[in-house]
Amino acid sequence: MPPRRKQVEGSSSSSSTYLADQLRGDIARQRFRRFANAKVKCPRFIVWNDFAHLNLREHFQTLHLFQYFDRQFHSGIGTLGVFPDLCRLFYANIVEDYSNDELELHTRLFGREIHITSETISDLLAIPNEGNDFNDILRQYDPEIINQELVLPEKYVENLGTLPCKNLKPLPRLLSRIFGWDLLNKSGGFDYISRQHKALLFAAVRHIPFNYCRLIVRVMNEDHGASLPFGSILSKIFSSHRISITDQAVDKKIEPYNRATATKMHILREHLEPADEPMEEEPLPPFPDFHEPRPLQIEAPRSSFDEAWDPATDSLSSGISLLLRRTGEMYTYMGSMRRDIDELRSDVQNLQIGQGPARRRRRQDQEE
Question: Which value, to the nearest 10 degrees, does the dihedral of the CA atoms of residues 345, 351, 352, 358 take?
């Protein structure tokens, strides 16, 4: 028997049955069944101050993505919530249309027709509907130039295909995870990035205009599997089309991109933040043996300015000397206590050995 799937607030089997009646065609029903266990990605916002050393706020403002990843935008989504079942119905009923030489998506929820274009996304997210796409970047720039911009110099090898994320520079490494999760709907392993992913990162690092609206529509139209993207965007679409959310499953969980989550995701490494040069530590003195106690001997540092010390310095020096003397006395006391314990243990063993023959003689007398 398969394990019961945990339902979010408001989820019910009757609600899923009612949603299934809204599907149009066999293909939509097959998709809806496939999406039954798919995870709808909830929004994430960036804690900008945690990445101030990378100037992440300025980068996203230049890319016109600041609002989409800002806490204020997602606070409104958190109030409204993300509706997993409605998102599954949205993607199950989706139909693509290229009649106007541009990808348009058509879907239907509760009798209401919804049309999604890049201009729709531009209006919702306040992102310019202009710029390059993957093919433009890959056609205009040599693959070696793209790799050199993204990869650490000491990790660079000529590779025109996928790249290991661990070899990326700090900023591209962080952006690869943010874009991979929130824009490309990548799930599972994040160990490597594809050629298209490289083009997206290259455009972001170089501040090359990129059409993120067209990218979002394209990702919406992909054949989804384990996860469904853009739960926060779909909530705004449902609200603008006045889709009924009564008795619908709702998820109001909003997670941040901050220092803690970045470390947990293994996208923070020692080269991500400027680290101070390690200081050489003096080796610690060996711990004294209890069987041979000896007072701790530390030679006080000598200075050519001893005669110029003020009374406060003399008081501090006296306190340190007293502390060292007490520490030596403690080691001496512990060694003495250890010897007493050894002597007591030896006396007990001797007593037990001596009582053995007497016990046997008393047992023999009782038997006779």
Answer: 180
